[in-house]
Amino acid sequence: MHPSELWDFDDPGGSEQRFRDSASAAEGEQRGIWLTQVARALGLQERYDDAHAVIDDLSPDGSPEVAVRLLLEQGRLYRSSGDPDHARPFFEEAAATAERAGLEELHVDALHMVALVVPPEEQLAANHAALAHATAAEDPRAQRWAASLLNNIGMRHADIGDWGAALAAFEDAVEARQATGKPSELRIAWWMVAWALRNLGSTDSALEIQRRLKAELESVGEEDPYVDEEIEILTSGDTPDP
C-alpha cells in the first residue's frame, strides 16, 4: 500500500492514527515508511517536538526509501516551523539520495520542496528543474507532480506580475489535472486560470469560468468562498487593478 492511500490532508489527526495502526502491524522497511508519515502528520498538527521524536527514533536500516523519507520529513518539519534555511539541505540530500536509488516519485517530491525553500530569485529555475524530472519520469506517481509544479510556476510568475506567463502555466496545469481524474483538483486549477484572466483584464472569460465552477460545486452540494469572492469582484464593476 502506498502512503497516499492513507492520507487525508484535511484530517492530519485521523491520518496520524491510521499510520500508527499500520506501523504497529508492519515490520522492517514498511514500518519505517509508515512512521515517517506519522511524523509528517504530527508536523501538520504543529506538534513539532513529537514529530522530531518519531524521526529521531527511526533508522533507515539499509532502506533507501526510508532514508529519503526521513530526510524529507525532517526538512518539512523545519520548514513548517519557520526555518526554511535549515530545511533546504535536508531536501537537497533527499533529492540526491532518491535520484541515486531510482526513486522517481520521491526525487520529484524532494525537488519540489527545494523549490519552496530557495530564495525567490531561484524559485522559477528550481520548479522548472523539478518539472523536467516529473515529465521525464517513468513512474506515474512522479509524473503526477507536474500539475502541482505548473501551479507553483504560475504562482511565481503571478508574484512578480507576469500574468501572461502565469496564465500559460495555469492552463498547462489544467491539462495536467485533467489526466488525474480528481474533480476537486481540476476545479482549483480552473480557478487559477480564471484568476489570471481577471488580472489580465479578460473579465468576461474569467466570470464564465467562475460561474461554471459555482454550478459544478452546487451540483455536488459544495461551496467555495474563493469562487464566490471572485464572482462578486467580477460582477461588482469595481475589478481591482492587476
Structural description of this entry:
This protein has 242 residues and is mainly α. It has helices at residues 12-24, 28-44, 48-56, 64-80, 84-101, 104-117, 120-136, 140-143, 145-159, 163-178, 183-199, 203-219, 225-235. The mean pLDDT is 95.
What's this, in brief?
The chain has 242 residues and is mainly α.
H/E series, N to C? Answer: HHHHHHHHHHHHH
Strand content: under 5%
Relative helix content: over 70%
- What's the overall average pLDDT, rounded? 95
Structural class, from helix and strand content? mainly alpha
How many angstroms does the end-to-end distance come to?
Answer: 46 Å
Shape: globular
Radius of gyration: 20 Å
Number of strands: 0
What profile does the largest beta sheet have?
A: none
Low-confidence stretches: none
* Number of helical segments with 4 or more residues: 13
